[in-house]
Amino acid sequence: MDGGTGNDRTESVSVGMVFFGQFIDHDITLDVSSSFEHINRPTDITNVRTPTLDLDCLYGDGPEATPFFYHASGPFAGVKLITGVETGGHAQAASDLPRVGNVALIGDPRNDENRIVSQVHLAMIRVHNKLVDRIAATANAPEGHDLYEAARQETTWHYQWNVVHDFLVSMCGQGVVNRVLSSGRQVYLPSEPFIPR
Fold this sequence. Notes:
Elements lengths: L14 H14 L27 H4 L2 H4 L18 H4 L11 E2 L2 E2 L10 H22 L7 H29 L1 H10 L14
């Protein structure tokens, strides 16, 4: 890597960035219609995620629609996300996602496909919960749903900043990121979808 100034891709990206990239992918894409039993036309596939880096894979549809992701009682009911501590049942629960049996209670089950991505997901839960504590400790702090929204917004902003200024710089180089940030994105739409070489 040239220190991030050029446009060349790095050959020294840390493996952690690759797993963070998998988490990002799960946050912006989800195909629930494709199957190995028939030919899938890319133009017919609907993405059920929002491609806006809004952490819907973490928050689900919010505490009203997906209450089982959130504390059910106490001062942070419907505000903090639950972890393995709240669902317990095994020795490593404090370092695990919330579970019912072997099924993780998270917005995207793909984030439990391997231990590293599940730990990235757990880290994001902990960031949200820590920000809830920090915001709640301020003077004139919001409460209830307003506290949840404030922590969600701050968590999302930190995540988005990291995607642009850490992940993309590591994967693409600072030169590419600077060019996109200064010139805007330029979209190339091929007539037939393909995987670039």
